[in-house]
């Protein structure tokens, strides 16, 4: 079919999307409105689709198709859903789009009327914050950290002390994967700490090539595995950069194309991890319901969590490290509860969970470097957390419902509705 016919079909399809935005089925659990809005945001600036724009358009179509498949179960009887499915099929045939290939990311990019900055190599594409139009809602950032023996602060600000020996996924979404390996601190002990870290940044549009970063005990590189320090040969390669803050001890990775900052430290023999990431990126997974374990999002499994408060009470009375179960080998340096608390107060004057983790780790391991790990973990929270009222945590959370995030369904629904109304209003001008 010719370009004119394809443009006409796209125009009619966009008119249908406007209609569906104005008259959505407000009582239906079907989430097709979100899919429609994302596709509209990706294509509404084009009046026709030329040959040079076809790859980007096909990418947007594939993303739209993925979105409809994810909501298929709850949309079986929804007219808007079936209209979208048929419209996608027709447009993919008209523009010779393959069903296999890259999909556009879920970030919404809206431009002012008349703005033609739509090229995939536009700097805005490779800068997450710049991709938000001034009328869009500002991104909401979240934080996750892992340090010590090991202690986990999730994206929902729950705090857990875990065993998690061996390799575990810390983050796993459409943009990157982070895996940690935890090994025993002492022979025969259930106390573990992070000895290896692997971060995979997935190839993203015209911004970055796939990059792998690996760190191990006594090896904290200031470059990716291939020796590079940025995102490769693409136009926006510098939107992914590694900076060495302290040689062999502290590196920072800036991934501006996804609005993410990662801090990796080596403290003593072990590694710490901290990340600041937009909530939208955190939730960017193909199928969240069937997604596997993801520590920063879901927390540690219940059978891997340690009853922090009970053990801390036992430590206070016994004066040395002791977990439930078989007796453990005594730590190399004997801390009493009093000397451990005094040592931790040197760096952590507020008796929050970071302070308590410090005491716990000194009694468990006898290694003073774990005090520094807790201190630097809190320093990273101060730098990375967007809510300064939540820097200190005082009550740990043991029973975390799998897959739960902070309640955001209402705000997300309102945002999509407002976006649709705004887009429809712009069309009528």
TrEMBL record:
Pfam families on file: RGM_C, RGM_N
GO CC field: plasma membrane; side of membrane
Superkingdom as given in the UniProt entry: Eukaryota
Stretches assigned to the Repulsive guidance molecule C-terminal domain: 140-386
PANTHER family per UniProt: REPULSIVE GUIDANCE MOLECULE A (PTHR31428:SF4), RGM DOMAIN FAMILY MEMBER DRAG-1 (PTHR31428)
Residues covered by region (Disordered): 99-122
Main location: membrane
Alphabetized UniProt keyword annotations: Autocatalytic cleavage, Cell membrane, Disulfide bond, Glycoprotein, GPI-anchor, Lipoprotein, Membrane, Signal
Entries under InterPro entries matching the protein: RGM (IPR040287), RGM_C (IPR009496), RGM_N (IPR010536)
This protein's name: Repulsive guidance molecule BMP co-receptor a
Ranges for domain Repulsive guidance molecule N-terminal: 30-99
Annotated signal sequence range: 1-29
GO molecular function, one term: coreceptor activity
Topological relation to the membrane, as annotated: Lipid-anchor; GPI-anchor
GO biological process: BMP signaling pathway; positive regulation of macromolecule metabolic process; regulation of primary metabolic process
Subcellular location: Cell membrane
UniProt record similarity statement: Belongs to the repulsive guidance molecule (RGM) family.
